[in-house]
Amino acid sequence: MTKYVFVTGGVTSSLGKGITAASLARILKSRGLSVVLQKLDPYINVDPGTMNPFEHGEVFVTDDGGETDLDLGHYERFLGEDLRRDSNVTTGSVYQSVIRKERRGDYLGATVQVIPHITNEIKARIKKLGGDEVDVVISEIGGTVGDIESLPYLEAIRQMRKDVGRDNSCYIHVTLVPYLETSEELKTKPTQHSVATLRSTGIHPDVIVARSDRKIDDSVRRKISLFCDVDGDAVINAMNADDIYAVPLDMYDAGLDKVVCRILDIDAPEAELDAWKNMVHTLAHPTETVTIGLVGKYVDLPDAYLSVFESLRHGGLANSARVETRWIPAEEVDGLLADAHLEGLHGIIVPGGFGIRGVEGKIRAIRHAREGAIPFLGLCLGLQCAVIEYSRNVLGIGDAHSTEFDPTTQNPVIDLMLDQHDVEDMGGTMRLGVYPARLEEDSLAYRMYQRQVVYERHRHRWEVNNRYRSSLTAAGMIASGVSPDDRLVEMVEIPEHPYFIASQFHPEFTSRPDKPHPLFAGLVEAALAYKSRLGARNSTEAAVQVDI
Ligand code: GLN
Fold first, then answer.
1. What's the CA-to-centroid distance between 541 and ligand 1, angstroms?
2. Concatenated DSSP letters for 58-77?
3. In the chain, which segments carry CATH 3.40.50.300?
4. Which of 40, 30, 32, 31 is nearest to 6 (CA)?
5. pLDDT band for position 419 (50/70/90)?
6. Is 261 a catalytic site residue?
7. 3-state helix/strand/coil string of 499-530
8. Which residue in 385, 508, 517, 525 is the catalytic one?
9. Neighbours of 405 (CB within 10 A)
């Protein structure tokens, strides 16, 4: 029977509930259990697809085309499993299906209410992830206990214990234990209040994960255990970690999985975390550093590029190198600050995006990479900008553009290729989720992947216009990846350049710390080579100067 773990948070937001849930999942998996993660989001949007990345961070795309919360990215990277769109539930999506059922008459004339109709729908979404193959479902409830929006979720998970039984459910509450400078003490009162609020909803936590910036000593632990009525060893101290990937190791050392397995009556072998430990060690002891510029529109909120940032770190891991990401506001690359921003980079990445703002800066950064033989990786809009840049500056088509940005351009090198011109519902027209791409055998793409067909996640509307394919190829930019029917360009590259490659899909969604994505590993490898070429050149120049 599937066991259910629920993770709630108190005191403040941003305490790392998602990382806690993901870390527990990783440890349980390394004990041989099959685990699925889920995020329950209390906002009214049906999914985060339409939300501004400035506000909500990146939209993470699953294999089956779900547009989901960025926590799912953490889940996949920690757990090492592909999740489905069901792993993200929002209040909007819950209400949408309840109202649909009501309109269909499914409730047989009953008055439709939060309890039981909304709570039943939430429970159904949680239970849907369970099943014969799944040992543990971990559901994280977004927001903070005490928020009006989270109440239906708390009521639903309270009922879950009644439904599945005490041995099959576990409540973990993540709180903050702040240090007060004036009294030089760690204070447990906020945790006590938060647990009191949680208990007022009928949920009695089994485990408290206490976040603190210094070690919680035994007297503080005892206090939390006593006032919050949890076992002494169920107070897990989670201190700030040096790196998020170290958190599963810290949680394991603190005994989180032991307590959870005891509560859930799970008999499983000890956790096997050696490979993970080695990975964290490599991350902390790089032998080299490279600086990669990320040229984007939303760089003020790095969460908007969370998966790209993490993938760069994974690419570093594959090369025992540390990647210093330089966040470059695309708009400024189109102005006087361009040189300052682009100077000293060992690689450039142009990630995905929507809207015209910053596009000219991205194009300029790509030109800089192409002409300077600087390693470049373009993702989605990054590919589209690379094609525009090449068309303008190599093919000499001055007004080459995407119809997304200039609907009347005479040279739409990027255009809507699928019959999408007349569709009004913006949600419905995107190419979302996994599609195959066939790779050209004698290409950089093929050398990186070592495979003929790859499956990658998409989230876009526009495509390379096939009318320009032959002239691009003739001029030196080849389509090294295409859809199996050859109708859509999936990857482009410039064979003459040491590393200039771009994908219409998003490789950042499938990169994992213990399985870095080849395109990112390749970028960092090329950046290291570029750096050493640069070093060699500089030392020759220095020698020449000394001679003089
Ligand atoms: N705006 C572009 C499109 O819709 C690129 C999207 C993206 O980068 N995810 O095709």
1. 43
2. PPEE-TT--EE-THHHHHHH
3. 3-278
4. 40
5. low
6. no
7. CEEEECCCHHHCCECCECCHHHHHHHHHHHHH
8. 508
9. 17
**Architecture per CATH, 3-278:** 3-Layer(aba) Sandwich (3.40)
Ligand 1 atom at minimal distance to the Cα of residue 353: 8
The Cα 123–Cα 476 span in angstroms is: 55
Backbone φ and ψ of 177, nearest 5°: -115, 95
Ligand 1 pocket test, candidate residues 307, 460, 488, 490, most atoms within 8 A of CB: 460
Q: Mean pLDDT over all residues of the chain?
A: 94
Ligand 1 site, CB within 6 A: 352-354, 380-381, 404, 459-462
Q: Which residue matches tokens 């919050």?
A: 228
pLDDT on residue 426? 47
What separation in Å is there between the alpha carbon of 455 and the centre of ligand 1? 18
CA-382 nearest atom, ligand 1? 8
pLDDT in tens, 277-325: 999 999 999 999 999 999 999 888 889 999 999 999 999 999 999 999 9
Residue 269 clears pLDDT 80, i.e. is over it = yes
User: Is the pLDDT assigned to residue 425 strictly greater than 70?
Assistant: no
Other Cβ atoms closer than 10 A to 82: 14
Confidence at 381, pLDDT banded by 50, 70, 90:
very high
Peptide linkage before 116 cis (omega within 30 of 0): yes
Token pair 């190198």: residue: 321
Q: Is the pLDDT of residue 424 over 70?
A: no
Active-site residue, selected from the candidate residues 56, 314, 506, 517: 506
CA angle at residue 400 from 487 to 341, to 5 degrees? 110
pLDDT value of position 377: 98
Query: Per-residue pLDDT for 420 more than 70?
Result: no
Catalytic-residue membership of 140: no
Pick the CATH number of 286-533 from 3.90.230.10, 3.50.50.60, 3.40.50.880, 2.80.10.50: 3.40.50.880
Q: What is the phi-psi region of residue 14: left when phi exceeds 0, alpha when psi lies from -120 to 50, beta otherwise?
A: left
Which residue minimizes the CA distance to atom 5 of ligand 1?
381
Which single residue is written with the structure tokens 């990786």?
377
Q: Where in the chain are all domains bearing CATH 3.40.50.880?
A: 286-533
Going from the Cα of 115 to the center of ligand 1, the distance in angstroms, rounded, reads: 40
- Please tell me the residue having the least CA distance from ligand 1 atom 1: 354
* pLDDT(418) > 80: no
Confidence (pLDDT) at 347:
98
> Annotated catalytic, 456?
no
Q: Please, what sign has the CA dihedral across residues 320, 322, 327, 333?
A: negative
CA of 87 to the centre of ligand 1 (A): 24
Nearest in space to 122 (alpha carbons), one of 13, 41, 206: 41
> How many angstroms does the Cα of residue 322 sit away from the middle of ligand 1?
29
- Taking CA atoms only, the protein residue closest to ligand 1 atom 7 is 352
pTM score, two decimals? Answer: 0.94
